[in-house]
Amino acid sequence: MELIRIYECLCDVTRLRILNILLRGPLCVCHFQAVLQEPQVKISKHLAYLKTRGLVTVRREGNWMIYALPLRRPQSLAANLACLQDCAAGDPAFRRDLDRLDRLAAATPAQAEPSMLTVREFAARAGLSQCTVRRRISDGSLSSTRIGASIRIPSATLQPVDPGTVARLAREARS
After folding, report:
1. What percent of the chain clears pLDDT 90, i.e. is strictly above it?
2. Phi and psi dihedrals of 153, rounded to 5?
3. What are φ and ψ of residue 23, in 5° steps?
4. Rounded to the nearest 10 degrees, what angle do helices 13-22 and 40-52 cross at?
5. At what angle do helices 13-22 and 92-107 cross, to 10 degrees?
6. How many C-beta atoms lie closer than 10 Å to residue 17's C-beta?
């Protein structure tokens, strides 16, 4: 991914807020509306912009379009998202967004939070080894949540993986 393309996406405050929220996990457009308190048209426009530039992925779940950060992130994107997360922690507007997201999740857990899978379940469904899944979690290319002593991964981040991709990821994991 070109660095210029990443910075083009980061030069808008709404897109920064969207990316910061997506660091918590996949969400539907309606959840972005509730958290950002912006009209659906504006949010959809920014999500489409981020999607065409490869900064978010989208999948349909029933009537909902679920947006997420890509599972495989180039180092330049991962580094910029980590920087965004650090900088946003001190900004009141970004903190308010995360507070609203937490309240939304608490109010409607079945809708706001996707079902969570263990590393083993996620690896089996994705056709990946558990080692590869854990490596993706540690390098930040896969969102996860620690619940007690176990690590849980939102099932919404699960994307079909073709056999060629599985073979390539297995080779990468060995190197």
Report:
1. 21
2. -120, 130
3. -65, -20
4. 80
5. 40
6. 24
106/86 Cα distance (integer angstroms): 24
d(CA 134, CA 77): 19
Q: Any residues with CB less than 8 A from the CB of 167 and at least 6 apart, and which?
A: none
- Strand bridging mode 27-28 / 150-154: unpaired
SS3 118: strand
The Cα 22–Cα 71 span in angstroms is 12
- H/E element holding 103? helix 92-107
- Whether 82 and 36 have beta carbons less than 8 Å apart is answered as no
User: pTM of the entire structure?
Assistant: 0.61
64/48: higher pLDDT:
48
pLDDT tens by residue, 145-164: 555 445 656 555 554 444 55
